[in-house]
TrEMBL record:
The keyword DNA-binding does not apply. It comes from Aliidiomarina iranensis. Residues 13-393 form the Major facilitator superfamily (MFS) profile domain. The lineage of its organism: Bacteria, Pseudomonadati, Pseudomonadota, Gammaproteobacteria, Alteromonadales. This is MFS transporter. GO terms for molecular function: transmembrane transporter activity. The keyword Cell membrane applies. CDD domains: MFS_YajR_like. Keywords: Cell membrane, Membrane, Transmembrane, Transmembrane helix, Transport.
Length: 456
């Protein structure tokens, strides 16, 4: 029974890495709910520059998160994570000292350059037994979600007291806290799992970009984060115009978020049980489109905005929680790390594009123009998703083998694919690794272990 639980080292690693990643993401999210309001104190303020400042981190994050993951394979996870947090702290200090919006943008670009996502996930995999890795990853995922919720609650409460400069100093302090946690709290690891599990493989990226099932998911996460970022260029000002003071926005975000979970979680469980996750994705996209349409219609009416925010959070939280599982189901065997790397790259590019588009449209056409653009993108995404297939629940197994000859690799691949329940078998002879994608409840574990044992 104990083998089904995290051991002490795994628990400590999961808690430490979730805290490090959560503190960093909290620092990135903190300015999102308030910059549109308090950014007006900068002499070069404009809605366009506000949008760029909100999304600027996504540009450098998108470009650097895959290379930083590869670098962690060469020089180690810890040096990459520590240096990334130091760069993030430096960017926060630059933004805190800035007296113009352009200076804030430069600081945000630096913040994004501390791209540690790949290295953190790789270290999480190194720190856990294979059967416990999904639990460790889930704890990190919950930390990211919690950081988003905390940012929506904390930022409006502090923004009016300490201002934008104070919020950036707080993000610098959070980064220093992450460095201390990494330095003193993270247990030593003595394994390095095959990088295909968690990090992209360069030669596979082109092939995966041609996989239209994965591209539908990549396009989805791009649009989702574009819409989220563009939305926060306008929403705080719309709430103020509707009569809700900036310092009270927390009391709108907190209950709407909590009430959204009361709908989202049962919805997810029912659709998961019925194997209708793709249908659930489309329903969530419709919710987002309806919520933004309602915001466009109910501008200036507080209760209409509150309902729209609640509906938006239902759809957004459902998609954020369900997309990783859909990605895992569609990713080829031995390519989960590559598929995840491309997915997160599209996510961060979406955040940057949303800031730029939201700022430009708000400045040129007002909030109605932003909402119309976002609804149109969501409709396009919905149409593009028509070809996304619902696949059966799968899981993955990885095995270490001896170095195999090409003939032995072919024999092992053929023997494994003949076993009932195995959807894909990928053998990498020079890595001594075998990757299986299998139907969750239909595979013969004894037969698989017997076949692999002959090549170990």
């Amino acid at each position: 029974m104990k083998q089904n639980r995290l051991n002490r080292t795994e628990k400590k690693a999961a808690a430490t890495l979730a805290s490090i990643f959560g503190l960093r993401m909290l620092g990135l999210f903190l300015i999102m709910p308030v910059l549109a309001i308090y950014g007006q104190s900068y002499p070069d303020y404009s809605p366009f520059l506000v949008g760029i400042a909100i999304g600027a981190y996504g540009l450098t994050q998108a470009f650097l998160q895959i290379p930083m993951g590869w670098l962690s394979d060469r020089i180690g996870r810890r040096p990459v994570i520590l240096s990334g947090l130091a760069i993030f702290a430096l960017g926060s200090v630059v933004a805190a000292l800035a007296d113009t919006m352009q200076g804030v943008i430069f600081g945000r670009v630096l913040q994004g350059a501390g791209a540690i996502a790949g290295a953190v996930l790789a270290l999480a995999a190194d720190s856990a037994r294979e059967e416990q890795r999904p639990k460790v990853m889930a704890v990190i995922g919950m930390g990211i979600g919690l950081s988003f919720v905390l940012a929506l609650i904390i930022a409006p409460l502090l923004g009016g007291v300490i201002g934008m400069s104070g919020l950036f100093w707080l993000t610098a302090a959070l980064a220093v806290g992450g460095i201390l946690l990494m330095w003193r709290g993270m247990p030593e690891t003595y394994q390095q799992v095959p990088s295909r599990d968690v990090l992209p493989v360069p030669k596979e990226l082109g092939r995966l970009l041609k996989n239209m099932q994965l591209q539908r998911l990549n396009a989805g996460i791009f649009v989702l984060h574009l819409v989220l970022t563009a939305w926060f260029v306008t929403l705080p000002l719309q709430l103020v115009e509707a009569g809700l003071a900036a310092e009270h926005h927390s009391w709108l975000y907190l209950p709407t978020l909590l009430l959204s979970f009361l709908v989202m979680i049962p919805m997810m469980l029912v659709l998961l049980r019925k194997q209708k996750q793709v249908l659930g994705m489309r329903l969530a996209v419709v919710m987002l489109a309806l919520s933004l349409s309602a915001i466009a219609v109910f501008q200036g009416q507080l209760w209409g905005l509150i309902f729209s925010v609640w509906l938006f959070f239902i759809g957004f939280n459902y998609l954020e929680a369900s997309f990783p599982a859909l990605l895992t189901q569609h990713a080829p065997a031995g390519s989960k790390g590559s598929a995840s790397g491309l997915y997160t790259t599209f996510q961060f590019f979406g955040a940057f594009a949303g800031g730029v588009a939201g700022g430009f449209l708000f400045q040129s056409f007002g909030a109605f123009g932003v909402m119309l653009f976002c609804v149109a993108l969501l409709v396009c995404w919905l149409l593009f998703s028509i070809g996304l297939l619902q696949v059966s629940a799968t899981t993955r197994l990885n095995f270490v083998t001896r170095t195999l000859s090409p003939k032995e690799a072919r024999e092992l691949t053929q023997a494994l694919t003949d076993v009932s329940g195995i959807e894909e078998a990928i053998v990498i002879p020079d890595e001594g690794a075998t990757y299986l994608k299998i139907k969750k409840d239909e595979y013969d574990a004894t037969a698989i272990n017997g076949i692999v044992a002959r090549f170990q």
